[in-house]
C-alpha cells in the first residue's frame, strides 16, 4: 500500500512538474513563432500597400478588389528616371541643378558637357513594368497571384475596405484604404488558446486584433499598426 502511494506521489509530482514547465515554455514558444509569422505577414501587407498607392497615384482611387489589384501589378506600367552619376558639391555650388544638368546632357553639346563635368551624368525617362518598378522583378507570376493570400493560411484572402468618398474638414477629398490580417487566420494553428488570449488582450486595449495597414474612418498615411 505504501509503495503504491509513493508511486502515485511520484507520478503526481512528475505531472505537476511537466505542467509547470509547459506553462512557462508554451507562451515563449508562441511569442517566438508569432514574431516570425508577423514579419512575413507585414511584408505582404507592405507589398499590397505599395501597389494600392501606385493605383491611387495613377488612377486617383484605390481598387476595391485584390484580384483587380494583382492584375494592375501584372499589366501596369510606370515611368521611371534612369540615373547615372551624381552632382558634386562643387557643381551644386556653381549653380547646377538636376534639371539644368539633364538639359545640358540632352542638348548633346560635348564641349558644354565637358566644361560642366557631366560626362558620366545621365537622366533618362523610360517606361517599365510595375513588377520591375515597384518590386524589382522579385516576384514570379505565381507569387504575384499569391500576394492576395494571408501567409500561413489555406489561401485566406486579406480583408480590405475602402472609403473613396472621405472628405476632410477643409473640403479635400481623400481616398482611404484599409487592408487587414486577423490574428485568428494565421496564428490559430500555432496555439489556439494563446491566440485567443492575445485577441482578448488587444480588444481590451481597444486595438485591432491582428495586423493591418491604413484606415477607413480617418487618414493615417496608410500606416501599419506595427509602425
Helix and strand layout, with pairings?
Elements: H1 2-59, H2 66-75, E1 77-84, H3 89-93, H4 98-107, H5 110-115, E2 122-129, H6 130-135, H7 141-145, E3 159-163, E4 176-182, H8 183-187, H9 192-204, E5 210-214
Helix pairs in contact: 1-2
Keywords: Membrane, Transmembrane, Transmembrane helix
Transmembrane segments: 7-28
Would you write up a description of this structure?
The chain crosses the membrane at residues 7-28. With 227 residues, the chain is of the alpha+beta class. It has two domains: 37-73 and 136-227, no CATH class; 78-129, no CATH class. It has nine helices and five strands. The strands form two sheets. It has a three-stranded antiparallel beta sheet with strand order 3-4-5. Strands 1-2 form a two-stranded antiparallel ribbon. Helix 1 packs across helix 2 (66-75). The longest helix has 58 residues, at 2-59. It is elongated and about 100 Å long. It starts with a helix and ends in a 13-residue tail after the last strand. 15% of the residues are buried.
Amino acid at each position: 500500500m505504501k509503495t503504491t502511494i509513493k508511486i502515485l506521489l511520484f507520478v503526481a509530482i512528475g505531472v505537476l512538474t511537466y505542467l509547470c514547465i509547459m506553462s512557462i515554455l508554451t507562451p515563449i514558444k508562441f511569442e517566438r513563432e508569432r514574431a516570425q509569422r508577423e514579419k512575413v505577414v507585414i511584408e505582404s501587407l507592405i507589398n499590397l500597400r505599395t501597389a494600392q498607392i501606385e493605383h491611387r497615384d495613377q488612377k486617383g482611387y484605390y481598387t476595391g478588389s485584390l484580384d483587380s489589384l494583382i492584375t494592375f501589378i501584372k499589366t501596369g506600367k510606370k515611368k521611371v528616371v534612369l540615373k547615372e552619376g551624381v552632382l558634386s558639391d562643387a557643381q551644386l555650388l556653381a549653380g547646377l541643378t538636376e534639371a539644368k544638368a539633364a538639359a545640358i546632357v540632352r542638348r548633346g553639346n560635348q564641349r558644354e558637357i565637358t566644361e560642366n563635368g557631366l560626362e558620366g551624368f545621365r537622366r533618362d525617362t523610360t517606361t517599365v513594368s510595375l513588377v520591375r518598378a515597384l518590386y524589382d522583378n522579385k516576384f514570379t507570376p505565381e507569387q504575384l497571384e499569391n500576394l492576395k493570400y494571408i501567409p500561413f493560411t489555406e489561401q485566406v484572402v486579406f480583408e480590405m475596405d475602402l472609403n473613396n468618398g472621405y472628405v476632410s474638414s477643409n473640403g479635400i477629398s481623400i481616398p482611404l484604404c484599409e487592408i487587414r490580417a486577423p490574428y485568428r487566420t494565421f496564428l490559430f494553428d500555432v496555439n489556439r488558446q494563446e491566440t485567443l488570449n492575445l485577441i482578448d488582450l488587444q480588444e481590451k486595449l481597444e486595438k485591432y486584433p491582428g495586423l493591418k495597414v491604413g484606415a477607413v474612418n480617418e487618414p493615417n498615411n496608410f500606416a501599419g499598426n506595427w509602425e
